[in-house]
Amino acid sequence: MKNAVLEPNKSAVYESRENWPPYTYRDYPSIKPETYQAFLEFLSTENTSGKLMELQPWISICDSKCAFCYFPTTATAKVSIDDYLAVLRKELDMYAKTRYVRTSVFDEIVLGGGTPSVLSAEQMIDLIEFCKQRFTTNKEYFIKVTGSSKTLALSKIDKLAAYGVYQMDIGAQTFDDKLRKMLCLPDSAASVEKAIRHAKKLGLCVCVDLMYNLPGQTMQSWIDTLKKVIELDVEVDTYSLHVDPGTPLETMIKKGLVPPPGDAEYEKQLYLVAYKILTEAGYKAVGHDRFSRVEWHFRENCLNGWPWGGILTTGAGCFMGYLQRFSYSNIEDVAEYMAAVNAGRLPINRLSESTDEDMMRRTMTRLYLRLPVDKIDFKRRFGKFPEEVFPQQLQRLKEKGLIEIDDKEIRITKLGDIWKGNIAWEFAPKAS
Ligand SMILES: C[S@@+](CC[C@H](N)C(=O)[O-])C[C@H]1O[C@@H](n2cnc3c(N)ncnc32)[C@H](O)[C@@H]1O
Ligand code: SF4
Q1: pLDDT at residue 211 greater than cutoff 80
Q2: Which of 148, 211, 318 to mutate to test the pocket of ligand 2 (most atoms within 8 A of CB)?
Q3: Is the pTM of this model over 0.85?
């Protein structure tokens, strides 16, 4: 199975796969008074983008820390949830009062994090109600809630479904109990399955996060996990493990308690197996890491609007926020986050304002999201076609068979799908 997926001559396009594109929060500069002022001025303008937005309040709190996780979360025991929710509302209100947000329309309310399911169903519903009152939603807007099966009691799922939540995002990671134990996931594969089946029975759409290239993960274990999600009929986000500095997993690997993840070739083979099995089961690869069987999900607005739409994210440590040229992340430490909001400041710690040149490069990262780059729209916005701005990069990628270009658009090819992270990096500024 391991070698049957990719022809050897095509496997060496790049030495290893990039899983992150450029222009993520990891690259944003620390906030400066001038950029904060520019952001406030931007927020006082009208939103004329014509793009729908996503509202994403984060509950950056978890009952326990999974060994691999790089998300900036705080233990439930160290936070007063009521105080956190009060401050989160205050921050949401600060944005809701700005002209930009008052002239924006949202088509998704997503409780993210962290683990919103540490809240009671009533607390989650109150927070969603608050968002509905303060922000303008369109007619077809929908609500998503992220939950971990370790805090997702079935009765909470009942209440969320009855309230009208459309989708539950669940971090399943793997259905292999041996790997779950190693990753410090406290609940069993059977309990994850039970939560998923329950949510599905109530008519909820379920999307699970799966991770591959986990220490000691065999190809068979990965295939079994993939077959399980197909059987459960859920959407899937597949993430390649990134061993982040400072995580318990990094320490365990350094101490030799668990093996390191597989090499670049093995990682690629795991991805290709997932691509093959899932596409053969009728899934389509969409967005940055999603496999979906729901046709209209392919066209979700907040994704398709990149980089001109927006995700308004709030809460301690949130890092996926972008409003057109501005991208930001929030203060991670909960106490400092709450102090900033209580002092009347937007609790941002990193803020980036893109120049025209950055926006051209960011537009090309649509390829990473498996989205086409519309050449006519590019010319309308920047006065030039992509081929005039990035002639060498596009020529190189075309020769490698990673992209195709016609009169209207630039798209990644099937081969380009494996290398979409590397493709995005071709358009990043070269380090001097
Ligand atoms: C904020 S978590 C959301 C899920 C929710 N908290 C839960 O655990 O059910 C987002 C997802 O990021 C992925 N993730 C976290 N740390 C990762 C890492 N080091 N490498 C790759 N993916 C990671 C996991 O799949 C995780 O479910
Ligand atoms: S994966 Fe989810 S539950 Fe686990 S630590 Fe990260 S945010 Fe918390």
Answers
A1: yes
A2: 148
A3: yes
